[in-house]
Amino acid sequence: MIPDIEPLPGNRSDPAPDFPWPNGARCAVFPSFDVDAESAWLAYDVKSIDRLVTLSFGGYEARVGIPKILEYLRSIELRATFFIPGWVVEAHPKMCESIAKDGHEIGHHGYLHKRPEPYDLEHDIEEVDRGLDALDRVLGVKPTGYRAPLGENYDALLKHLRDRGVLYSSSWRDDIRPYRHRLRDGTDGPIELPINMSFDDWMYGLTNRFSPRPMFPKEHVLSIWNGELDQTREWGGLVSMVLHPQVTGRPMRLGIFRDFIARARGFGDVWLTTGEELASHFIAHENGTRG
Fold it and tell me: CB neighbours of 240 closer than 8 A, spacing ≥ 6?
């Protein structure tokens, strides 16, 4: 027997609204970083707490990755968005303070990078609230953006995020334009800034250390990123990047990001901006685009 399945949240009968980007831009690029540090490995297996070489992948972020990324962003005067788990804020406060001090947007990324599960709402609410508390207590930040750890989310958690003041999410993979989530109770949820998985650097630059999958060379990654940007620019869409400082903070990988950003800027009609600014731009056009 085919089960009776309710309509899914985030599935919309109407297309993502079409509105102009600012200053005549043809498309937008959202450079964003998931500052997972060691939580990426602890969430995968909590026993890794004593696997110090494994944890050192994440420890690279505070020692080298974040300082080098911030140095580069300062040199080109570009603001980005950094999604940070609450545990990372507590474990590496100086690193996180340096991000905030440079004027970058700080987003929510859970507490211990736990993957949200629809049948574990109580625990997921605790993850969200502990993450919010850590960001506020350590950095004095009340984030407006959220990226789901390990890329999962569901209706009840979206509602809780909205009720806690989260303005936008950047987790779904179902569009190339921002849109507004519609929850199962018929109310509006957060704005979605959908992700293009072609721009997840983990896919190319750092595999599970026990996986045989090889890393991708610079030429392959730039070919994919530039091709996606060219077509997204033609379609007038949004490129949401999912970068990890333990990957893109490595010497050659930072060079890939640098070359991509330089090319995007070189067009002269690509809006490079933060998630908060994208969400604010969506809201400014929302009444006229939703009918």
Answer: 30, 32, 170, 193, 194, 195, 196, 199
